[in-house]
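Fold sample X.
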Amino acid sequence: MHVTSSLLLALWLLLLLPSTEMKRGGRGRGLRGARHGLTRDRVRGGGRHSRSGPSRLVAADCSESTENGDVFVDCQDRRLNSIPSSKTWSQEPKHLLLARNRIKVLRDGAFVGFEGLKSLDLQQNQISMVEEGAFQGLTRLTTLLLQHNRLGTLSEEALIPMPNLRYLRLYDNPWNCVCPMDSLIRTLQVPSNRNLGTHARCAEPVRQKGRKLKQVDAELLCRESDPTGDPQGDQTDPTDSIEPIPFRNKPDATTSCHTYLFPQPRLDCSSRGLTEVPTGIPEDIVHMDLSHNNIHHLRPRDFQGARSLRTLNLSSNNMERIDTASLFGLLHLRELDLSDNGLHFVQYGVLEDLYFLSQLKLGGNPWVCDYSIHYMVYWLRLHPVVKHSGLLCRSPPEHTGESVEEYVHSYNRECPKDRQRSQTDPDQTDPELWNTPLELQGELEEELEPSHLRAPQKYQIIRLS
């Protein structure tokens, strides 16, 4: 009886076990499926959050690069209206480029997480307000670019978190030079702060319009009547009769152009309606773009002081004349673009200072193939490392489309009649020595000499071998 009971119990357990395992397996698979679904939902959710969050959006649009060991984050021209998150980048950025965006306000703590920044470029935005704590934590910042914005006022307190600030650009903002600007103006006028706020000018009130912030009398700012106060008081204020300070007629490079300091100092003056080369080109500018303006004439010493220039773009200016010494001082220039202008020839001596030039663009000019074009060809022969393009005859008709080098070569080969020598001429020399670069350069100098000073001369070439 005991054995029978035991067998029945064993059979009952065998029958019960599969259904139990199936239930357990179902619950297990259901639980694992639930876990898998939950994980998948989390991933999807995380993905949606990452794609919709500002950090991921900015990361996809901005570029990150390293130069000389410093990390550059380039967020220029990205239509951003706020500062990206510092957690976006794989490395801590040293230079943050936010130029040409749509940022309007810098809120307190806007740059939290960017404590390692050395430079911050915020030019060409729409910034009209900077809260006092906007730059909190930027203790290592040395360069801040705020030019070409809409700032009317700025407190000195906004600059206090940046004790190492050495370069501050504030020009091309509509500064309202009244009492709230007192502390900032006093800070800018401290002698040791000579690179802070240079070229920034007042836009209002009328009595201060055009005056540099560094030249405003800070003592009078808070003594003058409040322009929002009693209108009668303003009418009796004798300072209202003062004429605004006039701007200089000749454009200034720092206010007329856009200055970019990173990764190399660059001055963008393209399409600015300029009729002459602006003054005050900073000495550290490496690249300068003056294309698409109306500069018809380069005058002597137009680039004096621009000693660091490596590239200069003067294309598309309808330029007709380049004076000798107009490129004076550009000893380190590597690339010069003169294409798409109205040049017929280049005067003798124009290129003499360009010792290290390696690229010269000349296309799109109506080059006239007569004796005046020879200087360009001789200079290029004496500087074979210079790669040039676009030097084609536009006139006269018999040479149209011909290479200027070919024209000069044929000109020398044909040997004009006034240079031909009689077979009986005792001074006749070996024809193989005619038309050497040295002889041609001497003849060019003679041709360019004023006629009243020119005297008949005979050249004698003696073979030393």
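Fold sample Y, listed below.
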Amino acid sequence: MAASSNSSLSGSSVSSDAEEYQPPIWKSYLYQLQQEAPRPKRIICPGEVENRPKYYGREFHGIISREQADELLGGVEGAYILRESQRQPGCYTLALRFGNQTLNYRLFYDGKHFVGEKRFESIHDLVTDGLITLYIETKASEYISKMTTNPIYEHIGYATLLREKVSRRLSRSKNESRKANVTNEEHTAVEKISSLVRRAALSHNDNHFNYEKTHNFKVHTFRGPHWCEYCANFMWGLIAQGVRCSDCGLNVHKQCSKHVPNDCQPDLKRIKKVYCCDLTTLVKAHNMQRPMVVDICIREIEARDGEKADISANIYPDINIITGALKLYFRDLPIPVITYDTYSKFIEAAKISSADERLEAVHEVLMLLPPAHYETLRYLMIHLKKVTLNEKDNFMNAENLGIVFGPTLMRPPEDSTLTTLHDMRYQKLIVQILIENEDVLF
């Protein structure tokens, strides 16, 4: 891996429009160690081995003992061979020389090679990554254990910087949206509403709803040298060197991710959809109090006036299309409005026989909902309460609405048909209680 200057590396990690921001000085110690790590040295078998697995090369030496493997490696750092176990034929071992000893690892293949969590296209890459990891952990174990104690994340005001970047991005998007004229007659109702939500959110970007949101970290392979945006240290290895937040793009070590505050500010460029998107992520990305799709649909249902939204009667004459889009949004949430974490508590509250105690229990569980979920549920219950006031015309009372919205708003954490069927009456009851007592509970 070729070395790069610290200045160019740090510059690539920071938004160019943050003129007042000075990039941090990356800590290069771990990068230097990676450069010093032993290089792989494949020891080739002099003859062709019968029954050699097709996914292994000439480094495969067939059935040999540990002692024979140790002798073949010759005490050379980074030298490696593959062998078949004498005790367990059909099982394969990577014998690797490191730290003046021979290390033996059980080797697996499922289309890629691996001895642990990481999977590699080639044995050479696996050994290269292993040697880097072994070397760094040997030379800098104490340093690594203390990496998170003095993070740049807090010192440079990362969260403040990120919020400023979000505000600038929203402002640019708002100006750009004025020039755009997006029309597509082939869109479905949901696609049109989704597009509408994105545009409408831009006109509300002056609001500030500081809902707490955890980062959505996923293991990531970085191409070229990368530094952790929490501790400023190099992210070592060939693949899966760290994690990246798929919502805001923050890059950190896996161990550093445990210390990052719940201050994720989703980037609209990464949020490609309205439906099937986490509720808190969506409202943070659009800087809204609750999902715009909920506002638009409910306002149209109530008044056939969608705040100048083009989902009015001349476009969608059947109001059931709008109500269906609203229910579909709730059904498609990866985490329901009534979250998996609170589901069992709501069900237990519904089972309480005393009406007063049951209401109090429901209120206590409501307080456990994430703010964006709570606000969305509150707004929906206010709407459904209005629906019940027109029961003579729409035949929808609180109990009927509970039947309709119970399974939509809350689902058991485990995907069990039996549990779902058993809990349906309690789901219905919870929504019925929320509607009938919305003025008290919220």
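Sample Y note: The beta strands are 41-42, 60-63, 79-84, 92-98, 101-109, 113-114, 217-220, 242-245, 251-252.
Also: DSSP finds 19 helices and nine strands in the chain.
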